[in-house]
Known about the structure:
Structural class of chain A: mainly alpha
Strand order of the largest sheet of chain B: 6-7-8-3-9-10
Strand content of chain B: 15-25%
Oligomer: heterodimer
Number of strands of chain B: 10
Strand order of the largest sheet of chain A: 1-2
Largest interface: A-B, 34 and 41 residues
Strand content of chain A: under 5%
Amino acid sequence: xxxxxxxxxxxxxxxxxxxxxxMLCVAFLAFLGPxxxxxxxxxxxxxxxxxxxxxxxxxxxxxxxxxxxxxxFFLFVLHGLFNPAGRTVxxxxxxxxxxxxxxxFAALMTSRLLCVLGASLLFVxxxxxxxxxxGLAQHGAPPWLTYVIGATLQIIPHMRARAAAITAxxxxxxxxxxxxxxxxxxxxxxxxxxxxxxxxxxxxERAIALEARAFRSSRPKTxxxxxxxxxxxRVARQAxxxxxxxxxxxxxxL
Amino acid sequence: MIRVEGLTYTYPFAxxxxxxxxxxxxxxxxxxAIVGANDSGKSTLCYALxxxxxxxxHGAMLGSxxxxxMDSRSTPLAxxxxxxxxxxxxxxxxxxxxxxxxxxxxxxxxxxxGAPRAEMAARIDEALALVGLEGVADRxxxxxxxxxxxxxxxxxxxxxxPQVLVLDEPTAQLDPLGSxxxxxxxxRLSRRGATIIMAEHKLEWIARFADRVIALAGGQVVLDGAxxxxxxxxxxxxxxxxxxxxxxxxxxxxxxxLTSSDALLPVTLEEAVDFFRPILPKAINx
Lengths: 254, 286
């Protein structure tokens, strides 16, 4: 289970940890940066060009639209109508009035979401999970952390398939899984219990399998593939952090 | 290679021992099969022969297990797994989940052992070739069939170059084709001189390939010897282990008085042909 899109553009050639640092810096700046326009500026001046140089404009735009459009719609409706800070009426339809302060707040929240989501999508679109795990391990992340990332991504589809098999098995024994909320609530336990119990058995066997592969060996681990981390990547990471701190500082000062 | 002396083991919260006073030795290069009904102690013995007992399963253990000269009690499990590799029943649960292709999955153990990168490719290629998975190296481990996943588990252990390979009912969840391919891979390893201990229910395969068979019942060794001696023994039926089709047919022929031969009953197809050749016309008339 991965959103990675194979490619060889600008972002694909960056070290995964550099992209991770960049994504986190963008997320911090979206909420703590100076002024209301910072998130939109980051998106237009940094994220969009990066998507362009990485050959991802079409899937990037599509994913952003699909995820953000419904969220933005609800933000504008709820805040435009019900934000308690709303004073200035922009227009009204009968008893319902849309207020400027609420719309401005909704716009700010949408631009922040656009920024955070935009940076996250660029990261997952251009970073294969194996490279992320390798990059993190290269930077001293403990083996259990990289294992959890990799195993989670791979086990989710496996668990989904098992849940479907359990549902089918219980349905074959006459369990009603469709209908009213009450009927579905009653069906929950017979479906969840076997899933949890079988997962516990699996966890035991998986622990044995990991032991068999010397996962807990105290020897220094090596890696099948090498991930280049040239000085320019380190400089880029440091520059990201310094710029973020300066801009957050400026935001507090101004 | 393996020396077990007076091994008795009881799982935590269990009333009865799973193994009772088991003593055996396995020489280097031997292919030893362990047979027995369910709950006879086969899996427990496999765990004891690889050090998971007492390191992973913390029950009450009496006696001793020596694996390639190392005492299983005093040697850390992380060291024992480098000399005794374990492959067990469920193929999916043996996939580490930490790697995304078959090739990377086989490399996982090598990475954990700190093998130099320069050595890895040759060792992975060799292990994949031994189990016949060269063609699927770039696929996700989860996209393989059950039989292929089990051969992947075998390759993943083989690449770590253990001195002993312990297989706990590796074909239990495989179809006939998957079982055949796995047995073929194990047979190739055996011919190359690997030390193999394999718990298995499929007696006809064992009869063909094993050098020696140990039968367990109630956690005790009830028979230990050459495949034909053990698998043709009437004691197997008494302990609910069953016998091969060839042995059953030959036993029936003897019971019908079609042969007065006192020779051991056949356990393989070839032995059955030899057994029935002198009496075949008589059998047809009967």
